[in-house]
Amino acid sequence: MLDAVVIGAGPTGLACGIELGKRGLKAVLIEKGCVVNSLYNYPTNLVFFTTPELLEIGGIPMTAMNEKPTRNEALKYYRRVADHYKLDIRQYELVERVEGSDGNFVVHSSKDSYACRKVIFSTGYYDLPNYLNVPGENLPKVIHYYREPHPYYNSDVLVVGAKNSAALAALELWWTGARVTLVHHGPGIHNHVKYWIKPNIENRIKNGEIPAYFNSSLREILPGEVVLDTPEGEVRLKNDFVFAMTGYHPDFDFLGAHGIHLNPETRRPNLNAETFETERPGMYLAGVLVAGVFTNEVFIENGRFHGEKIAESILHSIE
User: How far apart are CA 106 and CA 102, in angstroms?
Assistant: First the structure.
């Protein structure tokens, strides 16, 4: 019998595993991909907005060559932390369902079953993209995760969105020789785009190097073109690839299947604000799941502290 199973091995899941271990509690972390899978799927050349010390977990210092760490530096750091604390992480193992009740759960995965007293959901939100729900979105040329620009050299590319991921993708694709067009339903590049990216993308648009259609939407995706609805009417563009940079959301269906629901008024899960225990006794939420639909409220910087409160709650309930 394990004291806890942590579903998800991102930075917050790792922090939960560390804090449980510090208190002498036995835990297993189950991850459907690799360790910090979401960070692995970030753009290859990504530079974090924050400084290294705000990404640290478990009291292990993080170092970076420059003021802000890169994706590769973060991946190396979290691997090192997992090794240091000898966390029991089961990679490439999908949790299918959790049965039982507080103190006597069974977590069923694609590979095994685990008896445990408590369950911590730390699954993040990066795995489920917000779909456009337009005809042709299922075509192979539609991409919801931007990694690197090289494969799209000398191609006609449409980027949908105007936040950080869209702006960065549009710039890198343009720098690499793609013919980039941007479309967004709002009036311009979002105000929250990082300060070193925003003027760059706006200057490219102003100079006509990256044509942009604002207050517009993507109506249909065809094998060789896309159809836009703009204030001036229908626009058809030659197209090889569409990058739908429209954000992501937590797996609310998975949580709902386990009795964890969003409050219809606050659109946040019903949970204890001090312990992060949900309406389902013995089940906890960590990281961005705590914020419900407001995924821009919780990042590694603040989610990394959830593990301490959860571990303390579990320790006291077991004693």
Answer: 10
Cα separation, 95 vs 234, whole angstroms: 45
Q: How many CB atoms lie within 10 A of CB 250?
A: 24
Q: How far apart are CA 218 and CA 238, in angstroms?
A: 13
Domain boundaries, the chain: 2-127+248-318, 142-244
Q: Is 7 helix (H, G, I), strand (E, B) or coil?
A: strand
Structure confidence by residue, pLDDT tens digits, 141-173:
999 999 999 999 999 999 999 999 999 999 999
- Residue 8 backbone class (left: φ over 0; alpha: ψ -120 to 50; beta: rest): left
- Which one-letter DSSP state was computed for residue 176? T
Q: What is the pLDDT of residues 259-304, one digit of tens each?
A: 999 999 999 999 999 999 999 999 999 999 999 999 889 989 999 9
| 142-244 belongs to CATH 3.50.50.60 | yes
Q: What are 37's two structure tokens?
A: 């899978």
CATH number belonging to domain 2-127+248-318: 3.50.50.60
For 312, counting Cβ atoms within 10 Å of its Cβ (0-12 exposed, 13-18 middle, 19+ buried), the class is: middle
